[in-house]
Amino acid sequence: MSPTASRTVFRQSQFLIRRTAVRHNSSDAANKAKETVNQATSKASEGLSKVSSSAGPAITGAAQNVGNTLRKLGGPTAKVVGFIERSIPPTVYYSRVGLELAKLIFRGQNMYPPSIATFQSYFQPLINAVRNPSTLKNLSFSPQGILGRARGLSTKEWALVGVTTAEIIGFFTVGEIIGRRQIVGYQGEPAHEGH
């Protein structure tokens, strides 16, 4: 029995309890209905546990059969399947490590997700601009306004801006090094001598 079907049976059995109690207005009928519901619920949970215990190995077996079949084809398909199968355990491991690290950082920095009201206050102008594009013409970004805001920053905010800028430059530099596969220069075709 699927989880959806067991939930449906459970909901209908609760409905039957209420209907029976309203019709007969007696405690005997209600007790009998409750017993029926308890029996139906226990049967549904037993069925659900049987299905879930047999479905897990069945899904795993089906995935393995598909993998084995694709591996038998050989060539690039077998290489891709092998690569994916080798990549799954490290991916799961590092995603769990990243999640735990994120939890530690969130706790250490006393961070919390923003409230719905905060989301609405930040995204409401964007939503309004999408609904009414003519409001975008009225926006003006003047250098005086930007300089005024920059002059109003505190020392702590300037330090945060400096650290963030250094992080961005550092990540960009590391990305460039990885992309070039060396610290200086790009790999590629030698200079065209005839041009």
UniProtKB/TrEMBL annotation:
GO CC annotations on file: mitochondrial membrane; proton-transporting ATP synthase complex
Location(s), subcellular: Mitochondrion membrane
Pfam families with a match to the protein in the record: ATP-synt_G
Molecular function in Gene Ontology: proton transmembrane transporter activity
Composition bias, Polar residues: 36-49
Alphabetical keyword list: ATP synthesis, CF(0), Hydrogen ion transport, Ion transport, Membrane, Mitochondrion, Transport
Chain residue ranges for the region called Disordered: 26-49
InterPro entries for the chain: ATP_synth_F0_gsu_mt
Keyword Mitochondrion: yes
Signal peptide (residue range): none
Family stated for the protein in its record: Belongs to the ATPase g subunit family.
Protein name: Mitochondrial F1F0-ATP synthase g subunit
Lineage summary: Eukaryota, Fungi, Dikarya, Ascomycota, Pezizomycotina
